Amino acid sequence: MWDEVPVSVELRRVVEDKFGFKEPTVVQKRCIAEFLSRKDVIVQAPTGSGKTLSYALPVVEILMKAKTVWKKEEVGAVVLVPSRELAGQVLAVFEAFSSVAPLRVILFVGGHKARKDVAKFKGEGGNIVIATPGRLQLLVDKNKFNLNLKACLRSLEVLILDEADRLLDRGFSTSLSTILDCIPKARRTGLFSATIPEHMEDLIKAGMRNPIRIVVGGEEQLLCSSAKLGAICNEQPPSETVPFSLKMYYAVVPPQAKFLALIKFLNRHKKEKLLIFFNTCRCVDLFGSYLEKKFRNVTSVLLLHGKKQHQRQRLFDRFQSLAHGMLITTDVLTRGVDIADIDWVVQFDPPRMSSWFVHRCGRTARLGKQGSALVLLMPNEEGYANFLTRTYNVRLRRLNIRCSEPLCLKMRDKLRARAAKSREMLELGTKAFVGYIQAYLLRDCHIVCNFKELDVVNLAYCFGLLRFPFMRELRGRNLSAFVRSPLDTSAIPYSDPNNEQRKQSIRKQREDVGKRVRARWEKAKDPSKSKKSRSRSAVDARDLEELDNDYRLLKRLKRRKITKAEFDEQFAAV
After folding, report:
1. Which among 142, 130, 209, 126 is positioned nearest to 178, based on CA atoms?
2. 377 touches 193 (CB < 8 A)
3. Would residue 52 be called left, alpha or beta, if left means φ above 0 and alpha means ψ between -120 and 50 degrees?
4. Domain spans of the chain?
5. Hey, what's the signal peptide range on this chain (predicted)?
6. Of 500, 458, 462, nearest to 477 (Cα)?
7. Which architecture, in CATH terms, is 246-474?
8. Is 542 within 8 Å of 536 (Cβ atoms)?
9. How many contiguous H segments (helices) and E segments (strands) does the chain have?
10. Position 99 pLDDT exceeds 80
11. Which residue from 27, 249, 432, 514 lies 20 to 30 Å from 528 (Cα-Cα)?
């Protein structure tokens, strides 16, 4: 019960009333107690276990006890997160305590000019700063924008690094170093993540003092030990790095049947709430547009890619409110973002970084609720399931999705017919395929996802390709099995009249240029002109030869190999 957690009654009441937690989770109970006893903590717990509240609650409690009244520009806590979406959700958690805690909370993220953040901080202040590392570095670095943020950070009591492994994965190391140099060393630091990779040890050494490591497994098992420097990342991981209520599956399907398998699965679960991951933006556009059309009268299909921040937030909020629907996205939603009541997380492909697999799956089965996850694998990737079991202690069950050969051919013809009718779809399919191949080569598990064994010919049918694009990544591959469409792809029109008019204009310009080039070529082939040209060339060659002889004669004179009289005689002869 919350009575056992050492925080004020007012804060407990907010947690119960606004967040609906009748009792703390294991990670919340242990982390809050250690944090409030003035210890640094490293918290490794499955996604969806309540990590955000496990640091938000003690941060507010610490600041309320530190000072009765905080000046508006005194910063008491900094929370660093890897993405804007996660920052917005963390902000909402802290703002829930505003009724009982007179603390100002401010958000520093990208997407707008930094001067707006400066003006807001000067006007409203901020005792708790929630920021992405890049934006906070910009504001503290070299006293920019006439804002002495370094001075404001001298009062810092707490530093939180949320989704810490992703902060390092995304290249924020320089920003983190700059920020750590600007804040007091006498502070409490909390590092929170679902996974603690080896390369995080340097950050732990630089930013923490004798931290306590709290590890919570998928079955709510607890390991809490005094962390010895250098051993933090070498300890065995918990028995499960995902919630116990999460069921994970994989399906092995041939490349040409991959999109068909996805559609068959979605048909079975169309009245549920699904989050669908693709590895590239072009794939979201291509396959998402097809799914939008197919399921438009059945359920809501939302595409999160390719929109501005405020539009993304609006779509995200809409999806939150739906009872059932599909949200199609890239890895922008892999980490930290809390979406209510997701039934299934579906991955069209394994992610670029294998550690992201756990975080993708963690968008469902949050806070003890039931959830499921599925990843579609091709035959050359079948070993990926065993790789995950060995590396991350997650167990996947095999799910059979049968796709007969006639159905595969029918789907191939549908996708190609779509490309044959619209140049937009033809170009999008080609770009999506190229991006897919390039992304495939960037994966960190090359052995279990062997590119050389990838059936690129049948994969191309999945993208509705009519012709095979020239790619240096496929140089040396035997692509003769690809059935090339007999259509003249240059004649395929755009669906948009403006684009089609622009295309015809460009085509006419090219034809005009071609006519002029051919005319010049025909003129150059005129026999009479060729004869004159040959005679002119012969004259030019004789002139050059005489000039060369004169030059050699002059050099001999300067070297005194011949006399002046001999030079005059030979020059006159020439």
Report:
1. 142
2. no
3. alpha
4. 2-226, 246-474, 543-574
5. none
6. 458
7. 3-Layer(aba) Sandwich (3.40)
8. no
9. 21, 15
10. yes
11. 514
